[in-house]
């Protein structure tokens, strides 16, 4: 069934399109998403519907956000999917996901995200975290490693801190290039992001956390003291119990939040 979907549409480089074509992998992803009518189901970038079809089979209504007008036209006229889809044609990076929120329901969001927009799109979605039950994204494997990295590792960075501030991050499965048409040059993986209902390290001002992390990670080879000297004194670091001689990847999410909260209090 999923193979028919590829007829007549050529993947477009500018949209970063690679279409999933492996039924076993598709089955595992759909099982992880666990579609149901108790949540508002939202797919970003349905493409040719490889995940859209098996998800829609299990539910009454699926919201989709798709940029490519040709693919929107295909989905709209699809004999089985058409009536079930609530299609929003446009850029997911600018889309107001708040308009999909239904009374008494949280959202389950999923998608196969093009590499070039995956990071800004996740930052955009974190703004709606309170309305989201979970998110399942197919990403470049390297991005999943960054999302789930531990302090002290090479992959740990600004994206790690912001993602782990908002969500529990759980890698679900790896997807080899041969599962796609055309095969990408990189390995992919699926990650589950579960926004915290009660944040373990509440931040008073998220803009300050963005500012501290981007300033800290701007020059990874330098120490926190060097990178953050315009923001914090040695006394500040001592007060918070943060070792200023460490590099940015060596301190925890909780410590970044403590630094951001100190800025907020001034």
TrEMBL record:
Pfam families: RrnaAD. Signal peptide: none annotated. One of its GO terms (molecular function) is RNA binding. NCBIfam families: ksgA. S-adenosyl-L-methionine binds at residues 18, 20, 45, 66, 91, 112. Its main location: cytoplasm. Specifically dimethylates two adjacent adenosines (A1518 and A1519) in the loop of a conserved hairpin near the 3'-end of 16S rRNA in the 30S particle. May play a critical role in biogenesis of 30S subunits. It is an enzyme of class 2 (transferase). This is Ribosomal RNA small subunit methyltransferase A. The keyword Mitochondrion does not apply. It comes from Paraferrimonas sedimenticola. It catalyses: adenosine(1518)/adenosine(1519) in 16S rRNA + 4 S-adenosyl-L-methionine = N(6)-dimethyladenosine(1518)/N(6)-dimethyladenosine(1519) in 16S rRNA + 4 S-adenosyl-L-homocysteine + 4 H(+). Belongs to the class I-like SAM-binding methyltransferase superfamily. rRNA adenine N(6)-methyltransferase family. RsmA subfamily. Its EC number is 2.1.1.182. Keywords: Cytoplasm, Methyltransferase, RNA-binding, rRNA processing, S-adenosyl-L-methionine, Transferase. HAMAP family: 16SrRNA_methyltr_A. PROSITE patterns: RRNA_A_DIMETH, SAM_RNA_A_N6_MT. One of its GO terms (cellular component) is cytosol. Residues 25-197 form the Ribosomal RNA adenine methylase transferase N-terminal domain. It is found in: Cytoplasm.
């Amino acid at each position: 069934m999923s193979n028919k979907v590829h007829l007549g549409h050529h993947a477009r480089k500018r949209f970063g399109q690679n279409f999933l074509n492996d039924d076993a992998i598709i089955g595992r992803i759909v099982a992880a998403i666990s579609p149901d009518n108790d949540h508002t189901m939202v797919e970003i970038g349905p493409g040719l519907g490889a995940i859209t079809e098996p998800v829609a089979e299990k539910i009454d209504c699926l919201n989709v956000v798709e940029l490519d007008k040709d693919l929107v036209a295909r989905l709209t006229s699809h004999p089985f999917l058409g009536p079930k889809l609530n299609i929003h044609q446009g850029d997911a990076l600018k889309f107001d996901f708040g308009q999909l929120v239904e009374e008494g329901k949280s959202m389950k969001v999923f998608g196969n995200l093009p590499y070039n927009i995956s990071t800004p799109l996740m930052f955009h979605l974190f703004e709606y975290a309170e309305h989201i039950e979970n998110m399942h994204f197919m990403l470049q494997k390297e991005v999943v490693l960054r999302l789930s990295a531990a302090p002290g590792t090479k992959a740990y960075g600004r994206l790690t801190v912001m993602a782990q501030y908002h969500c529990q991050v759980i890698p679900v499965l790896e997807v080899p290039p041969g599962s796609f048409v055309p095969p990408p040059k990189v390995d992919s993986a699926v990650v589950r992001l579960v926004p915290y209902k009660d944040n373990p390290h509440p931040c008073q001002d998220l803009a300050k956390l963005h500012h501290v992390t981007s300033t800290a990670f701007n020059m990874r080879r330098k120490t926190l003291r060097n990178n953050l000297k315009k923001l914090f004194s040695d006394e500040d670091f001592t007060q918070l119990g943060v070792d200023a001689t460490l590099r940015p990847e060596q301190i925890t999410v909780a410590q970044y939040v403590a630094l951001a909260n100190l800025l907020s209090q001034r």
